[in-house]
Amino acid sequence: MKFKALTALSGVLAITAAGAVSADPDDDTLVINGEIEIVTKTAAPEHMEYIDEVMSGWHFRSDETQAFELDDFDNPGMLFVEQAMDVWDTVEGEKGKSCADCHEAVEDSMKGVRAVYPKYVESAGEVRTLEMQINDCRTNAMGAEAWKYDGDDITNMVALISSVSRGMPINVAIDGPAEMMWEQGKELYYTRTGQLELSCANCHEDSYGMMIRADHLSQGQINGFPAYRLKNAKLNSVHARFKGCVRDTRAETFAPGSPEFVALELYVASRGNGLSVEGPSVRN
Amino acid sequence: MKRAFTAAIAATILAGAAMAETVAPGDVVYEDGAVAASLTGAAGSADEGATVMSSKSIGNCISCHQVTALNDAPFHGDVGPTLDGAGDRWTEAELRGIVANAKKTFDESMMPSFYKVEGFTRPGTAYTGKGIDAADITPLLSAEQIEDVVAFLVTLK
């Protein structure tokens, strides 16, 4: 089941780990609208050293929360996808263009895109998140204003673009020109921050399946993003989630859209290689 | 009037005495992870300790530990071991060391260090996400609160 870095464990903790009976992630399967099969558990990608099976955060939620994702009519995140669909066709900016003018039908042109982002964009000479790419289209191709990096407009658009790739395997490249940033992201993932001195790995690699107060810790995967959270009743972006988790270590966070969070997103996305694109997901 | 005045003086003297005895976070002496002497020079209150451990805004220990004696408080986590029987497994000095800085007992422990003010990466001002000047960092628990928690833990037999 769960690999631990046994060498790092003291005798005391080894006993502890064996004795802790946790609420394990369940074995349910997710098929959306009776037709889109979502891979929610699969063998971990080769670069993962301490985990042998990767799992969507969906497995760690209650049956009631899970059920929202079974049908698009029940998934509140899809309301925002519909809003973004209107925006897709709306002309904005000095050049008098809409997204559709360049990209036509979103179901066709954007299929598969979510699965490979963040990625190194040759023409730009940098690793880009979907948000960065969208804002580049807005400012350069449309002559419109950039959206706020983790604002509702852009997050809804990311959800639309994700939704048309649902069921496709995440396949983020970590070698070649992306490698340096990937290494930086990995470093951040394992750095213990804030006065609580907790790293992403402490909670989402060493302790997934366990309870931290009322929360059932998942692997912190991002295949389900943007995520509609019942808690704030809107779609939440990857960087907004990162910010919340870093804040919870009593640390000074990085800003959404910062190079650090872009690197972290690339790394965390790659930890989900092989899982299906699932966004917009529903979480609590 | 006069009584209030004397009480105020008495309080000042007491506070002075407590301050003189309180061991600062940087001065705590750990021996194999254990801390022999009370950080305040006095014994703590087990009742207060129970409050510190179960309050989300104070120690929040139960977010990671199950403690049967604190079952009135909701949502005990299981990231750490149950603390039932901790008073049998550890001496008072060992418990004080674990609460003050668990990493001295358990290498690389996930448990936060509750009586420590330096050596953090990107420390922030509580849960605001904003940074903090190193000089303004206070320990997660005060010396009194640590002693209260220790007084409670030793009762877990």
Keywords:
A: three-stranded mixed beta sheet; two-stranded antiparallel ribbon; 36% helix; B: 157 residues; 5 helices; globular
Amino- and carboxy-terminal Cα gap of chain A: 26 Å
What's the tally of helices of chain A?
12
Number of strands of chain A: 11
Q: Numbering strands along the chain, what is their spatial order in the largest sheet of chain A?
A: 10-9-11
Structural class of the helices, strands and pairings of chain A?
Answer: alpha+beta
Biggest sheet record of chain B: none
Uncertain residue ranges of chain B: none
Average pLDDT over all residues of chain B = 91
Largest interface: A-B, 35 and 34 residues
The secondary-structure element order of chain B is HHHHH
Radius of gyration of chain B: 17 Å
The largest sheet of chain A is: 3 strands, mixed
Give the mean pLDDT of chain A. Answer: 92
Q: Structural class of chain B, please?
A: mainly alpha
Straight-line distance between termini of chain B? 48 Å
Order of helices and strands of chain A: HEEEEHHHHHEEHHHHEEEEHHE
Shape of chain A: globular
